[in-house]
Amino acid sequence: MLRLHEKYGPVVRVAPNELSFNTAQSWKDIYEKRKGQGAFIKSEFYDGGNFAAEAHSIVSVRDPEDHGRMRRYLRDAFSDRSLREQEHLISEIIDHFIDRIGVESDSQSAIDIVMWFNLMTFDIIGSLAFGQSFGGVDSGVEHRWVSIVVKSLRMGAMADCFKRFPFVGTIFQKMFPGALKKLIEDTRRHEAYTMELVQTRMKSKTDRKDFLTKILEHRETDNLSDVQIAAHSSDFVIAGSETTATALACITYYLQQNPEVLRNLRQEIRSSYGCYEEINDSSTVGLHLLNTVILEGMRMYPPLPFPLPRVVPEGGSTINGHYVPAGTVVSTNPFAASMSPSNFCDPWEFRPERWRESQTGDVLDASQPFSLGPRNCLGKSLGWMELRTTLAKIHFKYDMELADPSLDWHAESQMHTLWQKPVMKIKVKPRLH
């Protein structure tokens, strides 16, 4: 899509009734609430998925009123107050991850940091969504349930293709009859295990503060069934793990490719703290270079790279200066927007300073890694907490070095709904000074 937008401009027709945009204005026109304008509801792309036959989740629900109701009872779990209560749970897993990569690096010359970021973020979201981590950081192995989740995300791209081209789906089923059967079986296993985790957490007598603590407070007033709670919890894991791990991995790669930025970041972090224990979410908010490094990493490699399709409401609407008829499916392509030379000067250059200098010529609002509007990412503050805290602790304690300098991150990545990232071997050593 990046190449298509570079060739045809800010709006590209990708199907008879579907348009792709890549501008900052299109983000606002499509996803923000506009006075006197009906809501751009989610398209049929969101139909199906886990628990679809029994309950919608905050991600899959299309009706704006239902979404608003869900958001009201879920937002308490993601409020600043709740995050402060949950921070010790998050920090415990991050600290364990920091220790484990040090131990693993002692026993081998380099570790796949991409895998370890995934293990950590899934453990964190498992702890918050189900009251127990998946044990990935402990074992160094991906949990079977996590494996099913990751595979299902990759299959999402294929499912969308089959919706657009049914004959391709028919051919695929005839050529690979076992693939569809396995997908259905994996979905059932995923749903069954999710229900088991949720019910175990609900039966436990605990005073721990996690997502379910807040959600269960609304169980009776909002008439929440076990299936509804499980659907939300499943989405928390899917949306709140892989994306954060992707951002951490990309940022790590680009820091290795830009040694001066890496040196300056280490200096900022190490001069700000007397000891490791001082690092927490609130103390990292003021680390200006760290924050711009994160913004730049998410610009170059949006953690959620696929477009979020919406349907133009009755009466039509103007998007990026173009009138678009009602019923048209529209979206802003995150990667095509954030990597367009029309929006960013030298978009393939990792330049954190573009986020703090006012005269760069960049259209910063073209990068929206958490989307925007009433359906923006509910876990944005949690994501920032994990990103800042993890990166600050890693670079306070360790010096890191890319084992294979020839690695081309973008060229070796694939996008199947989410990014399929390459292996990235990193040498992790205790800091020298």
TrEMBL record:
Belongs to the cytochrome P450 family. The keyword Protein transport does not apply. CDD domains: CYP60B-like. Keywords: Heme, Iron, Metal-binding, Monooxygenase, Oxidoreductase. One of its GO terms (molecular function) is monooxygenase activity. Heme binds at residue 377. It comes from the Eukaryota. SUPFAM superfamilies: Cytochrome P450 (SSF48264). Gene3D superfamilies: Cytochrome P450. It holds the Pfam family p450. InterPro entries: Cyt_P450 (IPR001128), Cyt_P450_CS (IPR017972), Cyt_P450_E_grp-I (IPR002401), Cyt_P450_sf (IPR036396), Cytochrome_P450_monoxygenase (IPR050121). This is Benzoate 4-monooxygenase cytochrome P450. Its cofactor is heme.
